[in-house]
Amino acid sequence: MKKLVLLGGGYGNMRILLRLLPNNLPQDTEIILIDRTSFHSLKTEFYALAAGTSTDKEIRVAFPEHPRLKTVFGEVIRIDREDKTVYLEGGQEVQYDDLVVGLGCEDKYHGVPGAKEHTFSIQTIAKSRITFEKLCSLPPGSTVAVVGAGLSGIEMASELRESRADLKIKLFDRSTRILRDFPEKLSNYVKSWFIKHDVEVIAESNITKVEENKIYNHDQVIDVDAVVWTAGVQPVKIVRDMEVEKDKFGRPIVTKYFTLSNDEHVFVVGDCASSDLPPTAQLAEEQGERIVKVLRHRWNNEPLPETMPEIKLKGFMGALGKKQGFVHLADTTVTGRIARLMKSGLLWMYKRQNN
């Protein structure tokens, strides 16, 4: 039996499972899914778990069940491409014929002293739980700093405001305005929401050091009770350590078929793969679609297409608490209650589809 091994149960590999099961997998092939948890986590909703407005159960989706799908739970520690073997903590080994690396990302601290030791994260469900415990236990009047005003930082700060009206929240943004690469109308809407809800946005910030209960913005020292870091990501260490050609962000450079340039049996998907597009769940799913296309051609002994469909992201959605939000699709911006309903509806559809 040939083995297609999927490392990580994230958005990219979930899309692969959705397309191959139950009836599109060759009879001589089985899938082995390796993940540290027994469920798919909705990473786009980790901010709500950390803020305390969503429960752990609400952001989990069960992995599918199939006679030729085997799930292995454990931590990947090494990939040996010569022996085509994946090694897990505890000594377990899993061999593969084809491998899809979708192990996701972790926080990138940009060399800021103390950032790794003294900040909280929302990059994994386990770390989001720890962040929730810290933020939930803060006494009234405490100050929380959110470093990074990208989509994750915006949603984290707004959701925390809805959860804890008694906290002082500071959102640090390196740019001159929030979401500077998008229409000014959208930036102004998000900024006005923060002003209305008493979230202090500190523009043109530069965090130079983090200490326990202190954060340094340029030369200014600011007393804080907790810091949530949302200021960039990088591939997990096992991917950064792979001996392959990488881009400036440490992500393996892939071919148009999403394989390594020197190994056609290793695919890379999601936050691990080099791309000119921003790392999003939507991108991972589109990459997963193309990997399935390549696998089907191979399984049918057909030549691979000379060109692959270009990935065009449809846009993005963001939440400002549970009642307001913003959507940017096809150069059209929608804000307010309707935008929030659109995001909630998309989440409901995703969970229903994958269940």
TrEMBL record:
GO biological process terms on file: aerobic electron transport chain
Transmembrane segments: none
Gene Ontology terms, MF aspect: NAD(P)H dehydrogenase (quinone) activity
Keywords, ordered alphabetically: FAD, Flavoprotein, Oxidoreductase
Cofactor(s) annotated in UniProt: FAD
UniProt-listed Enzyme Commission number(s): 1.6.5.-
Domain annotation FAD/NAD(P)-binding: ranges: 3-288
Xref: InterPro entries: FAD/NAD-bd_sf, FAD/NAD-binding_dom, NADH-Q_oxidoreductase
Family of the protein in this entry: Belongs to the NADH dehydrogenase family.
Protein name, per record: NAD(P)/FAD-dependent oxidoreductase
Species for this entry: Metasolibacillus meyeri
